[in-house]
Design brief:
Layout: E1 5-12, E2 16-24, E3 30-39, E4 43-44, E5 47-48, H1 51-69, E6 75-80, E7 85-95, H2 103-114, E8 122-134, E9 137-140, E10 150-161, H3 162-174, E11 178-184, H4 185-193, H5 196-201, E12 203-208, E13 213-219, E14 222-229, H6 233-244, H7 248-258, E15 271-274, E16 283-286, H8 287-311, E17 322-325, H9 334-342, E18 346-348, E19 355-356, H10 358-361, H11 367-381, H12 383-392, E20 399-400, E21 412-413
Parallel strand pairs: 1-6, 3-19, 6-11, 8-20, 12-17, 17-18
Antiparallel strand pairs: 1-2, 2-3, 4-5, 7-10, 8-9, 8-10, 12-13, 13-14, 15-16, 20-21
The structure holds adenosine-5'-triphosphate (ATP) and magnesium ion (MG).
């Protein structure tokens, strides 16, 4: 009998820590009930630099979300930065034990696919089956119950950097939080922003964070390509600071309050006040100039994204276009600039199938944390299945992201 479940997602970004708490009702409806955000002190390049500061920042973000939700959380799903994982393809194969494919056969085939030579610092985070083959019959997404003697699986493995992830987990423990599972952020984003159809036909998620832009291509329901570009929203802020001669914090405020990704849409006569450095008097500057600075840098980001997609051979193939997310995706007219530069459809990612504080989590900065909660809730809803598998094998750290129930039933954790 289904019951109410509360889950929390924690996105440890380089600039801000985001926490989202959600409640799943017995009928399956998911309400976002709390959100918290706090500057990510003690983090750099997706890793912990100063554990004390990191723990304090985590607590602040979580407490803000707890206050809003009116409950305490002790367990979280965590997002690992794309900087610390890599993906590659692997194949596994097994003899089917009975007359038809059962859980135990699927598990055995996936275990074999998982058995790859890994560096001492690597750990398998996810196994993403792309296709099963039963006695040579290809393209099977759900093999259970199919009669045959030989089962193959073609899967993507997602390997994470173990020391980085263990340090993140240790900081969470010190912040009185148990990490239930670690998801790589693109999978969390996909959970939140992509429809099963777009994941199938091909779509790129472009997450423009603070120092980096993550590009992840989904095809045939699974991650097909990832790249991390060393450019992000903080570069825009630095340009504003340098061109308009204003402190970094003021440049950030100007960007958020008056910035747009297209300069020609603003009134050419509109003036904004730019605070001076060292207490000097504010100066009037045309808003169009501010937006030109922003447009130039955002355009550069999209050119680099276009180069990356071309290099990986996805420029023409993405029928689902580009989904924009991360804090910088809040800029007005960013979709238009993306479409113009990338020459493909672009949209800002909107969380799907949610209730409650929907308007709050529509802010792109919350997409990863929201996706984590959804992934976590799906994981719990499959517990009956995990139990069945646990009887066969002991509990392991990796998550299986199954292809066939994308959007409708989720992955199994074993
Ligand atoms: N309203 C806004 N308009 C423009 N830019 C914004 C806005 N809000 C946030 N940003 C920018 O978004 C960036 C932070 O985005 P986000 O919170 O997604 O990053 P992060 O997850 O902390 O970092 P990363 O993903 O790189 O580790 C910063 O550069 C910030 O200036
Ligand atoms: Mg981020």
């Amino acid at each position: 009998m289904a019951r109410e479940v509360i889950a929390a997602g924690l996105d440890l970004g380089d600039s801000r820590i985001k926490c989202v708490i959600a409640l799943r009702h017995a009928d399956g409806q998911v309400d976002v009930i709390g959100t918290g955000v706090h500057p990510a002190n003690g983090f750099q390049n997706g890793a912990v630099q100063n554990p004390d500061e990191a723990v304090a920042s985590i607590r602040k973000a979580v407490e803000e979300a707890e206050l809003m939700a009116g409950c305490e959380i002790h367990e979280v799903y965590l997002a690992a930065s794309s900087r610390h994982f890599e993906t590659f393809d692997s194949t596994g194969m097994t003899r089917i034990v009975g007359e038809q494919v059962a859980d135990v056969d699927v598990r055995a085939a996936i275990d074999m696919a998982e058995a790859v030579r890994m560096g001492p610092d690597q750990r398998v985070l996810h196994v993403v089956p792309q296709e099963f083959v039963v006695d040579g019959q290809r393209g099977i997404k759900q093999p259970l119950g199919i009669p045959g003697v030989r089962l193959e699986v073609h899967a993507h493995l997602v390997l994470g950097n173990a020391p980085v992830i263990e340090t993140l987990e240790a900081c969470c423990r010190r912040a009185r939080l148990t990490v239930l599972d670690v998801f790589v952020s693109p999978l969390a984003l996909a959970e939140c922003l992509l429809t099963p159809q777009s994941r199938d036909v091909g779509v790129a998620v472009v997450d423009i964070g603070s120092d980096t832009t993550d590009v992840v291509v989904f095809e045939r329901g699974a991650i097909a390509h990832t790249a991390v570009l060393a450019i992000g929203g903080d570069h825009i802020t630095a340009d504003i600071r340098d061109c308009l001669n204003t402190p970094t914090a003021e440049a950030e405020n100007l960007k958020r309050a008056h910035g747009t990704a297209l300069a020609h849409v603003v009134d050419p006569d509109e003036i904004v006040e730019v605070p001076g450095v060292g207490g000097r008097r504010p100066r009037p500057v045309k808003r169009a100039l501010l937006c030109e600075i922003i447009e130039a840098r955002v355009e550069e980001i999209f050119r680099l994204v276009a180069d990356e997609l071309s290099r990986a051979g996805y420029r023409e193939d993405l029928a689902g276009g580009v989904i924009l997310t991360g804090g910088t995706a809040s800029l007005h007219y960013i979709e238009e600039l993306a479409e113009h530069t990338l020459q493909m459809p672009a949209a800002r990612g909107i969380p799907r199938d949610l209730h409650g504080l929907v308007d709050v989590v529509a802010d792109p900065k919350y997409a990863s944390a929201t996706g984590l909660v959804l992934a976590g809730l799906r994981e719990r809803s499959r517990d009956w299945h995990s139990e069945k598998l646990r009887r066969v094998r002991p509990v392991r750290r990796s998550s299986l992201w199954w292809l066939w129930p994308w959007g409708g039933g989720g992955e199994k954790r074993v």
